[in-house]
Amino acid sequence: MPVIAFASPKGGVGKSTSALILATEIAKRGADVTLIDADPNHPLLRWSKRPGKPANVQVIADANEESIIDVIEDAARATTFVIVDLEGTASRMVAYALSRADLVVIPTQGSEVDGVEAFKAVKLIQTQERAFNRKLPFAVLFTRVSAAIATRDLKDIQGQLAKVGVPMFKTQMVERAAFRALFSFGGTLDDLDPTDVNNIPAALDNAHDFTAEVLTTLKQTSREGRAA
Predict the structure, then answer these.
(1) What are the boundaries of each domain within the chain?
(2) Nearest-angstrom CA–CA distance, 181 and 18
(3) Assuming Cys at both sites, which of 70, 79, 116, 203 could form a disulfide with 176, CB separation 3.0 to 4.6 Å?
């Protein structure tokens, strides 16, 4: 079953938020999902203890460097999708997890500092490809993007990535209060109360588009893998 890993050497770029949105959106479509919370701060584990966690989403938070491969493989045998939220560093555990991924999502914000870290994540993935002698599909996901304007920094980073052929998701995760609210209230975007959180429909559309693009990417990479 597909394993999707969220990886970045830098913390605070929206890994956990994007992983949670993807997991809950896939679960809404009827698939069972295992979320592996490998972030030392365990934001997904805390979310799971709040009301509203879908019954077809389970969260595992006890993976470490020695066990991460077994945890991923066990989860892949038990559930339809596995989503791994990795720690914000280039550790051995991150490298081991990447070796089992069918798709790596590299979240980054549209700043020069985050762009540098995104390139580091790409290099780490390329190193893992050589080490394990297998193609490792990946794409950069821009997060916390302004809904109003594309900043000069964002355009510059996109240009740098495109110049060297780094794939990027067309969908960008816009800065939305609803995304942050998931960790405050629990549950899913559909469960949020519009009296507490503004503009939930726009957040739902953004989440839907991202999930659809991830699923399409998985199908494409699966076909390419079979053709090879």
Answers:
(1) 3-227
(2) 13
(3) 203
Q: What pTM does this model have? A: 0.93
Maximum alpha-carbon separation in the chain: 52
- Is-contact 131 32, C-beta < 8 A? no
Q: What CATH number should be reported for the domain whose range is 3-227?
A: 3.40.50.300
d(CA 149, CA 208): 21
Q: What is the identity of the amino acid at 64?
A: N
Neighbours of 63 (CB within 10 A): 21
Average pLDDT, the chain: 92
What is the rounded distance in angstroms from the CA atom of residue 101 to the CA atom of residue 11? 20
Strands ordered across the beta sheet of 138-142: 57-60, 33-37, 81-85, 3-6, 103-108, 138-142
* Measured distance CA(211)–CA(227) in Å, rounded: 24
CB atoms within 10 A of CB 20: 27
Token digits for 25?
Answer: 């959106």
